[in-house]
Sequence to fold (148 residues):
Amino acid sequence: MMRAIVQRVSKARVTVAGELTGQIERGLLVYVGVGQDDVDADAEFIAGKIRFLRVFEDRDGKMNIDVADIGGAVLLVSNFSLYADCRKGRRPAFVDAAPPAKANELYERVCEKVRSLGVRVETGRFQQTMAVEAVNDGPINIWLDSRA
Fold:
């Protein structure tokens, strides 16, 4: 199952070796992890959840508005460490994470799908060490899985 951590942010940015690769103001910072068994349907599901997740407040202060409704953007960052297994020992194992080629393909599919649903998407750089800065708004952090 594909995994994602969605953070509501007032701003976020990612750099690689000092180079800015993605930056947003109000919107969602999303870390995406791809698993061994993930397929295109998992990417479609996660993209739809990201696009239509109602985590912004309406006039009554209830989380009832999605990222497009506020004119926000999404910063998508690939993150294989969402598949860290720490149940044994002290060093995480990543055996359930997809191999890089497959992970990149499905990560890019998530990016494309969210864009096709009418939201501006910024990204990090796949398989690179990234510096991510964010101002979490709330804080609101939501864990998504593509399968129950």
Summary: The CA atoms of residues 32 and 78 lie 5 Å apart. The first strand starts at residue 3 and ends at 16. The mean pLDDT is 97. The beta strands are 3-16, 19-24, 27-33, 56-57, 63-65, 73-78, 120-123, 131-145.
